[in-house]
Specification:
- The structure is a single chain.
- By secondary structure, the chain is of the alpha/beta class.
- The protein has three domains: 2-57, no CATH class; 79-269, Spo0b-associated Gtp-binding Protein, Chain: A, CATH 2.70.210; 275-422 and 463-493, Rossmann fold, CATH 3.40.50.
- The protein is built from twelve helices and 19 strands.
- The chain has helices at 23-30, 66-71, 109-116, 153-156, 232-238, 285-292, 372-386, 405-409, 411-420, 425-440, 444-454, 480-494; strands spanning 13-16, 41-42, 47-50, 79-85, 94-95, 140-144, 159-161, 187-191, 195-199, 204-208, 214-218, 227-228, 262-269, 275-278, 310-314, 329-333, 360-366, 395-400, 469-471.
- The strands form five sheets. The chain has a six-stranded mixed beta sheet, with helices on both faces.
- Strand 17 (360-366), helix 7 and strand 18 (395-400) form a beta-alpha-beta unit.
- It is elongated.
- 29% of the residues are buried.
- It holds the Pfam family MMR_HSR1.
- It comes from Salvia splendens.
- This is GTP-binding protein OBGC2.
- Residues 74-272 form the Obg domain.
- InterPro entries: G_OBG, GTP-bd, GTP1-OBG_CS, GTP1_OBG_dom, OBG_GTPase.
Length: 495
């Protein structure tokens, strides 16, 4: 876009002496430019033209500042995009056979023995020569490590390069001492348990849920081969020993190592836990985790104290004897949900992805709140809108803070109202069975209507009831053992 701007007001005006502009000068200047729109501006006291570049520079997404990583860790700890590149293969070599012409005159016994001795080369099982190869480039492997818990370190370093293979160490002459290039070591990148590895375009590569799980994400390049450079009268004779003979200059490309793969990966962390604690902010989830496990989450009297999932290990049932060690479970304390979290209110609901691996949900409800039943319905509705499968999992409801007299008085009424939300498991199974039986005795048109009814959106009343509703006071340690007994019983039923 061109405009006439006074020379003293624009730094992009190129001033030219008056009466000196010609087609030759303009063409010489335009030859140094790409596709620019230019227009000559002629005024009374000066002549010039304004040039605006039409090329746009690609803007890369800036990496978060280290200070932001510390202050807003909850936004970056469970998802990151990295780039990995495997190592290139080492180069081969163009080799010559040593000269076999000995000296005509031999002096002494040692010289005769040296001239009669033939060079010994490495040979394959069929007698062919084994020529050295360039080293294999380093592969890139991502594996699950129990000592890692977040993906924050990948925001500081988002590119990983493996080493290249070694070249053939030769001075141009093939001998028995010529060795192949060294293979580069494998680059192993540790990630937390539960990390899902995807390509940047969405293809799933691996789900690293168990310790020691690993996946090869980029293969190193193959090393180049070595070629023998021989005169024409010796090529036919050496063809019986090896086919790696340089015929023309185009064959030299075979000695160059192949490049390693480079891919962009998306790492998504899904916490590996057996039990997930959900509820509104300040319901007592972190306090419950600290009271039942050795975890030490942040606890305060303001909302959204928990910004990242906290994990704790729940001991097994002591009544099982030696089996208590195999009945231990992992608890995950998730940040608080509020109404409208699916619209981005509060901390949003992206952290609900960490519930996908859980077998049991524990709804923690503040029994001393203004409307505990409505709080319970709010959390269930947010879970339904995020993933309806979460409501199909077994769960128990914990009414916390019953040490407050008001909460203790209305505990029976709260328990009864919560029991009314939902239906029994047997009723759900009978309903599904009756629909299937009715589908066999109907026509095709009616079958479509029945299928559409089964796929309709359910309300929270159409899902199963909780396995148990129990009132506790985590802070005062009231009925904690009864709550743990219900949690362990529910876990056994989920196996």
């Amino acid at each position: 876009m061109l405009s006439s701007v006074p020379q003293q007001r624009s730094s992009s005006i190129l001033s030219l002496p008056p009466n000196t502009i010609s087609k030759a000068s303009l063409s010489a200047f335009s030859s140094q430019l790409y596709h620019f729109n230019r227009k000559l501006i002629v005024k009374k006291n000066y002549q010039g033209f304004l040039i605006n570049c039409a090329l746009a520079k690609v803007k890369n997404s800036p990496s978060p500042n280290p200070d932001i990583l510390v202050k807003e860790r909850h936004k970056y700890f469970d998802e990151v995009i990295i780039t990995v590149r495997a190592g290139d293969g080492g180069h081969g070599a163009i080799l010559n056979l040593p000269s076999q012409s000995g000296s005509a005159k031999s002096v002494g016994i040692f010289d005769k023995a040296r001239t009669k001795k033939k060079a010994s080369y490495k040979r394959d099982f069929d007698g062919s020569l084994i020529l050295p190869l360039g080293g294999h480039g380093g592969d890139v492997v991502i594996y699950a490590d129990e000592s890692k818990d977040t993906l924050l370190e990948f925001h500081k370093k988002s590119r990983y390069n493996a080493k290249r293979g070694g070249n053939v160490d030769a001075m141009g002459v093939f001998s028995s001492q010529t060795r192949s290039g060294l293979a580069a070591p494998v680059l192993r990148i540790p990630v937390p348990l539960g990390t899902v590895v995807k390509q940047k375009r969405g293809k799933l590569l691996a789900d690293l849920a168990q310790p020691g799980d690993e996946v090869l994400v980029a293969k190193g390049g193959q090393g180049g081969i070595s070629l023998l450079e021989l005169p024409e009268h010796r090529r036919n004779k050496m063809m019986d020993l090896t086919t790696n003979i340089l015929r023309d200059d185009n064959d030299k490309v075979l000695a160059v190592g192949q490049p390693g793969e480079e891919v962009s990966l998306q790492l998504i962390l899904r916490v590996v836990a057996d039990v997930g604690l959900v509820g509104l902010p300040n319901a007592g989830k972190s306090t419950l985790l600290a009271a039942t496990t050795l975890a030490k989450p942040d606890i305060a009297d303001y909302p959204f104290t928990t910004l990242m999932p906290n994990l704790g290990r729940l001991n097994g049932d002591p009544s099982l004897g030696a089996g208590q060690f195999s009945s231990a479970a992992t608890l995950a304390d998730l940040p608080g949900l509020i109404e409208g979290a699916h619209l981005g209110k509060g901390l949003g609901r992206n952290f609900l992805r960490h519930l996908r691996r859980t077998r049991l949900l524990v709804h923690v409800v503040d029994a001393a709140a203004e409307d505990p039943v409505q709080d319970y319905r709010t959390v269930k509705e947010e879970l339904r809108m995020y993933n309806p499968e979460y409501l199909e999992r077994p769960y128990i409801v914990v009414l916390n803070k019953i040490d407050i007299p008001e909460a203790m008085e209305r505990l029976p009424n709260l328990t009864e109202e919560i029991w009314k939300i939902g239906c029994d498991v047997m009723e759900l199974q009978n309903d599904v069975t009756s629909r299937r039986e009715a589908s066999h005795s109907t026509s095709d048109g009616d079958q479509i209507d029945i299928d559409s009814q089964e796929k309709k959106v359910k309300t929270i009343e159409e899902y199963q009831r909780p396995l148990a509703v129990i009132g506790v006071s985590v802070l005062k340690s009231i009925r904690i053992n009864e709550m743990l007994k219900e949690i362990r019983a529910a876990l056994r039923s989920c196996q």
